Every structure is written in C-alpha cells, then in structure tokens.
C-alpha cells in the first residue's frame, strides 16, 4: 500500500473519532427544552376585538359567528338569536330600522354599548331609543378619583352574583322607567335591560370587559356566557365592526402596497425600454462592386493628392533597381547610354526609356504614358 494512502486513512480515522466524540459530548451536556414566547396579537385579533369572546363561546358549544355589520344586514338573524355589537350604530335606512324592530319583536336579543345612545337632539331619528327612554351621561372626575368600578350583576338563572369591572366615566339613566332590569353604577346604571315585544334590548354603560384584553380576567367570561345565555339554542352574532372606514383612510392603509406596485411598474417599464420586441434584423448587405471601380476611385484619390508623383517615383526606382541588379554593367554608364542600352533590349526607343525612368510629368496623359513604358520595362526584364 502506498504511503499517501496510509496517511489518508489515518487522517480520516482521526477525524471520524473527533466527530463522534464531539456529538457525544454535545448530547450529554445539552438538553432540548420548549419555551413559549408572546408574539403579540395576531392580525385577526387586532381586526376583531371580540375574537376571544367568540372562541370562548364556541368552546362552550354555542353556535357563535363573528361578522361585520354589512354581513349582518345581508344575512339577518332569526328570532331567538342574540346580536352583540362591539360598537352599535342605529341604522339610518328606514328598511333596516323596520328589519331591526321586527326581529326584536319576534324574540331577538340585542346587546349594545352606551356609546350608541344618542343625545337628546339626535333622538328624533332613533325611534328605538326614544321609545325606551334610555340616556347616557358623562361623569366629571377629579384627578385622583378611581374611574373603574366593580359591578355585581345578579342573573336570573345563576345563584351567585358575577363581578364585572366597568369604567364609570359614563352611566345610564332610565328616564321613562321602562327598564325591566338594572345594575347600579355611580349615579345611574351600568346595565339596563328593556323588553321590546318578545325580545330584549340590553344596554351596557361600558362593554370593554368583553374585548380580547379583558375577557380572560376576573369573571368577565362568565358574565358574557350568562349575558347571552349559557344554554342558548339560537345563534350568537358578534358584530365587531360597524362603520366602514372612509376612502381616504383605506387609501392611507394601503399606501405601502400602492407604492410597491408603482415602483414595480416603473421598473418593468424601464426594463421594457431595453428589450427587443422581436429578433434582430441582419445587417443590410450592399451589392459587391467591380474591382475596376475600386481601382478608378483609388487612382482618382492618389491623383488628387500629389498627381501620383510618389507612386510613380516608387515604380521608377523599383524597375530601375531591378535592371541595375540584373545587369551590373549599367551602373557604370551615363544616363543617355544606359537608356540606349536598355532600349536595345526592351524594344523601346532610347527616348521612351529615358522618359519612363527620368523625365518629369505634369499631366494625366503623361502619367498614363510613362506608366505604360514602365510596364513594358518590367516585362522585358
């Protein structure tokens, strides 16, 4: 076995032993434990202050449903049902008012708070409260006075009195003395109950003890069960919202969603600006031009530059050097003898050879003529 393999096996074994020892030490020195933490109210509980009351009544076996006021009017309760409002508002539509009165007269039980009781000048449009004669009064407290009082409520089917903590900032008055039951609070009442046909209307000076934060303290849950009836056979409707928020309030609540949607739309628009809507077109192919046109264009450019003096001079030097290299004797001859010697061997006259290699040109015709002579001299080499 190779030495590297042995070292690798040893290192692997040591790592395995260390890993096993670490796991053993961890499991012998630590233990698993569960811990409950308070994460705050859920969104459903924040939206529905009567959620805890609904779940409590449901566990008691009561047919309980928490709804909004708009859902209540769409599916009206049946005679014998109990409707408990968190914040009651007397309906303004005559049809809904008649619907409410008919349901109460048929045996319904309505439980509302004192905030729903109108002032004297508003009772003209609230026939129910005008008929009952209930009135809500705000108290003036001294700075150090206790505002919370305990009400001892005696229920007909329960032997002991039930204690309920109620804010005494507001109390109720029975101006027409039509109440069939009442619980004293301050200078008036904390609870009044009226008979309307075969049904009942219960008015609470303060119903905060029914909300999520207080339903689990003291005897509040028991008071709720006795208030709606522990063995109630009908359905219990808990109306947790009354007024629809304004359009401005709804817009403010959903501002973040609107901003995110606007930013996403802007990003998509910017992205679409740089994206092609289809395949890229191939580059246009220009038709091929004849090589004669290129040569003509090149010649015209060079002629306009310096009348082709540099080009002609280079051709002369190249051809003359080729003759001198091939015939070394020409290097010792004067120009006129050299021209005659080359003319005798190229088929040109001596004057043509001298004109091709040494004369100046000034016109386009001279350039063409000299170029033709140089071509013949190149061929004669």
Report mean pLDDT, rounded to a whole number. Answer: 81
The proportion of strand residues reads: 15-25%
**What helical percentage do the residues reach?**
40-55%
Strand count, sense and barrel status of the largest sheet are: 7 strands, mixed
- Main β-sheet, spatial strand arrangement: 1-11-2-3-10-9-8
Number of continuous helical runs: 14
Order of helices and strands: HHHEHEHEHEEEEEEEHEHHHHHHH
Cα distance spanning the termini: 81 Å
* Poorly predicted spans: none
Count of β-strands: 11
Spatial extent as radius of gyration: 55 Å
The helix-and-strand class reads alpha/beta
The outline comes out as elongated
Give a nutshell description of this structure.
By secondary structure, the chain is α/β, with parallel strands linked by helices.
List its traits.
14 helices; 381 residues; 7-stranded mixed beta sheet
């Amino acid at each position: 076995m190779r030495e590297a393999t042995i070292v690798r096996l040893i290192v692997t074994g040591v790592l395995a032993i260390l890993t096993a020892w670490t796991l053993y030490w961890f499991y012998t020195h630590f233990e698993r434990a569960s811990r409950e933490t308070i994460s705050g109210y859920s969104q459903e509980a924040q939206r529905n202050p009567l959620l805890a009351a609904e779940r409590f009544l449901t566990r008691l076996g009561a047919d309980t449903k928490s709804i909004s006021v708009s859902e209540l009017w769409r599916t009206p309760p049946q005679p014998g049902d109990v409707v408990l409002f968190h914040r009651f508002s007397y309906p303004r539509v005559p049809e809904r008012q008649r619907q409410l009165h008919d349901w109460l007269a048929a045996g319904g039980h309505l439980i509302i708070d004192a905030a729903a009781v109108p002032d004297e000048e508003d009772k003209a449009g609230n026939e129910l409260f005008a008929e009952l004669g209930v009135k809500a009064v705000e108290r003036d407290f001294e700075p150090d006075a206790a505002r919370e009082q305990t009400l001892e409520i005696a229920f007909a089917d329960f032997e002991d009195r039930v204690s309920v903590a109620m804010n005494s900032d507001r109390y109720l008055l029975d101006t027409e003395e039509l109440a069939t039951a009442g619980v004293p609070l301050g200078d008036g009442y904390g609870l009044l109950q009226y008979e309307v046909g075969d049904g009942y209307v219960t008015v609470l000076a303060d119903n905060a003890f029914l909300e999520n934060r207080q339903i689990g303290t003291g005897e509040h849950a028991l008071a709720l069960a006795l208030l709606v009836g522990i063995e109630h056979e009908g359905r219990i409707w808990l109306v947790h919202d009354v007024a629809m928020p304004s359009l401005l309030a709804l817009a403010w609540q959903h501002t973040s969603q609107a901003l995110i949607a606007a930013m996403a739309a802007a990003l998509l628009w910017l992205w679409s600006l740089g994206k092609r809507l289809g395949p890229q077109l191939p580059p246009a192919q220009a038709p091929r031009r004849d090589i004669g046109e290129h040569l003509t264009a090149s010649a015209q450019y060079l002629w306009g530059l310096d009348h082709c003096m540099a080009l002609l001079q280079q051709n002369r030097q190249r051809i003359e050097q080729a003759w001198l290299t091939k015939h070394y004797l020409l290097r010792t001859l004067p120009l006129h003898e050299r021209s005659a010697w080359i003319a005798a061997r190229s088929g040109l006259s001596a004057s043509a050879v001298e004109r091709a290699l040494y004369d100046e040109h000034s016109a386009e015709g001279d350039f063409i003529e000299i170029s033709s002579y140089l071509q013949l001299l190149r061929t004669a080499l």
